[in-house]
Specification:
Aminopeptidase, alpha/beta, disordered N terminus, disordered C terminus, 11 helices, six-stranded mixed β-sheet, about 45% helix, about 325 residues
């Protein structure tokens, strides 16, 4: 079939949209690492659910779980402390404090754009993983995206390559998405059998993660540790495109100090919002192109169908 015959079947407007879809396919194929069989199509975004990690006090968390904190053993108490406080930097900044601060800054920036936004917690209070998932599954957040904000810690040290070099604690950001169906996580684990996986938006997860990675990597001096996959509860239980951002290592003395600063938190917030806006722009383009290609007056082969382009990789 000649190119002239093919082009004659479409207006130049439609040809332009096919070009957009071609580059969309190239973009997605470059960032996707998961098998997206049965994946939901990517659609427009109507709001953002922010999930600041951790929060509250151990006594509060124990009470919600029908336990008396003072009656617990040493390791049970430590588990509640870690669940509530998260990582703690060398200068005493708790992860729960930093995640909430960044989330509030992201919320303010999105509200300035008149874009709907909600939070799983807006104060220093304990919110269980099940309650976070329940909020994500609420019908009012249909066609939203979720961004879970955390910070990292590690007891590992980077091995020196010479006697003159010092051992350095890991640093940099990581972005987590749900592994592909039937695939293992970055750490090599299979899906735990303790809960069902609700999320079926693998393409959306990866596109959102890639949008975030590009913008976060633009922060001067930050290290990009890449996009990884994990069976985190908030990722498995969220029905919307979702990512979990580890914005840096609080266990690294210099990075931990940065994370506790208002200036660095603002940089993270601006990068996250820019990533959200990039994702919104991409999904709007995909949805518009998909709507036109599905009109009865247009004949297009399956290879040009946007659902196929977004799920075949």
């Amino acid at each position: 079939m000649s190119l002239c015959f093919f082009v004659s079947r479409f207006s130049w407007k439609h040809v332009g949209l096919l070009v957009v879809l071609f580059f969309a396919a190239v973009y997605l194929s470059g960032c996707a690492t998961t098998n997206t069989a049965g994946d939901s199509p990517i659609g427009p975004v109507y709001g953002v659910l922010l999930d600041p990690g951790h929060g509250g006090e151990p006594e509060e968390a124990a009470t919600q779980n029908n336990e008396r904190f003072n009656g617990l053993g040493k390791w049970e108490k430590q588990g509640y402390r870690e669940e509530c406080y998260g990582a703690i930097s060398g200068n005493g900044c708790m992860e729960k404090t930093a995640t909430l601060a960044v989330a509030k800054k992201v919320k303010a920036l999105l509200e300035h754009q008149d874009f709907p936004v909600a939070m799983t917690r807006s104060t220093d209070t304990y919110v269980s993983l099940n309650d976070r998932i329940a909020k994500a599954m609420s019908p009012e957040y249909h066609d939203w995206i979720m961004v879970s904000i955390h910070f990292n810690r590690s007891t590992d040290k980077q091995q020196a390559t010479s006697l003159r070099q010092k051992y350095q604690a890991p640093r940099g950001f990581e972005i987590y998405v749900l592994p592909g169906e039937g695939q293992r996580s970055t750490m090599g684990s299979n899906a735990p059998g303790c809960m069902d996986t609700v999320n079926s938006t693998r393409s959306g997860n990866m596109l959102l993660a890639r949008s975030m990675e590009i913008r976060l990597s633009e922060i001067p001096g930050i290290r990009d540790r890449g996009i990884r996959s994990a069976w985190f509860v908030v990722l498995r239980g969220s029905p919307m495109p979702s990512v979990l951002i580890e914005g840096g290592f609080m266990s690294n003395p210099s990075e931990g100090s940065l994370i506790s600063s208002d200036d660095y938190q603002q940089k993270l917030a601006r990068a996250i919002v820019a990533g959200i806006n990039d994702y919104r722009a991409h999904t709007t383009t995909f949805a518009h192109a998909d709507a036109i290609l599905r009109k009865p007056s247009i004949t297009a082969s399956k290879s040009l169908d946007s659902d196929y382009l977004m799920t075949a990789h």
